[in-house]
Amino acid sequence: MGSHAKHVSIQSSASPGELKSSLLLILQRARIINLDELELYFGGEDVTDMVGFNSPRNEMEALSSILTAIAKLEGEHCSTTALQELRVVAVNSISELGEKFKEEKKVVTQSSCEQEKGLQQWGEDQGVKSQLEISYFEGAGRGAVARQDLRIGDIALEIPLSVVISENLVHEYDMYSILEKVEGMSAETMLLLWSMKEKHNPDSKFKLYFDTLPEVFNTGLSFGMEAIMALDGTLLLEEIVQAKEHLRAQYDELFPSLCNDHPDVFPPEQYRWEQFLWACELWYSNSMKIMFSDGKLRTCLIPIAGFLNHSTCPHIMHYGKVDSTKNSIKFPLSRSCNAGEQCFLGYGSFSSSHLLTFYGFLPQLDNYYDVIPLDIDVASNEDCEHTDPTSDWTSHMVRGTWFSKNHGIFHYGLPPPLLDCMRRSRSPFLQSMTLTPENLEIELEILRDLCSMFRRYEGWTRRS
């Protein structure tokens, strides 16, 4: 990392400008530490290209890690004025980031939330602690707003495990003894089949929760013919079709045999294909992966928490672990949320096609994870004397060039590993990119190939 590896010293008498400069140096390293695989791919081999802003996710993770480090130092040593002021600068940077990527959603005051309020009251009776209120938002449906000003580290929501729907719950029902004998049966599928039946149980502990669920989820999995026709020729349609074919095959493996063999446990009227698809959409769009105290990662439905909407720059990022001391799941804030402001949850680093297919919405802002995988078959050259770091990538992709920091010659706003792969397929012993006639001829060939390749994805890559 060269010059970026030197220590950062913060003087107790540091001025605001010096504190900002110190934070920037720390932030540059934190950005690199918190890079994910996608950001590494598009960043290339030169670390100096990645010390700047990479994505909202990376920036939030970097700033959050700095706050964690400051808190640790304050715990190990006496809290100094410099550390306190550095913390203020970091918190302000998070606020500025939130403002930059703020998503405006207007509350629909005339919409009733009586069922949701009933569920909230039930949850609080069961031990749920919430600083959020359920509201309807224009163009987004239900969401959660802060009841009061919440700051970084505040717990917006705490859900006891007693109201979490997880695989342990199915063990208490008759269907478990049947399903555990089915070859290849997963815990997730058991939960899906359980929810299809429990939805109709008037005595269910979770009746209020099921009553708040929509009759139609409107994800890509339930698109009608008009929407399918509009998507003709796109990669999104291909993704939706493949997902539905997979689900249909899964359904056909289970039904009607389960209904025929155990009609009392699996009533045919409750296990039709349409109901199976509804349950799939429920679990795709509302479930969360939670790490339990035994170290096992389980897929769960978490009443009330499922109302929180996704954002490119969410307030809540770290929530997937059970607090063993409280036997609950906590949702702490990574950035502040003012009273009356919608509180967003990070669903994960997903492409817009994935969000539309499995969640039923498109992000309001640019999505850094909108990538197109490329089918490039280039034989490896084991005899190459020079091995570039970017040659380690075995699969390639592209995304909007407006995310790139370098649009000059030899870069074009495209990922370095892709360009490196294409160059080495033509010149395995390529040492450096300089303005020589030979190199320029290679570049022209690559650009022609890229133009031809991108025409196939034109309908997908065009920005709306």
TrEMBL record:
Cross-referenced InterPro entries: SET_dom (IPR001214), SET_dom_sf (IPR046341), SETD3_SETD6_MTase (IPR050600)
GO function term, MF aspect, one: protein-lysine N-methyltransferase activity
Domain of life (superkingdom): Eukaryota
Matches recorded under PROSITE patterns: SET (PS50280)
Entry-linked SUPFAM superfamilies: SET domain
Segments forming domain SET: 130-348
This protein's name: SET domain-containing protein
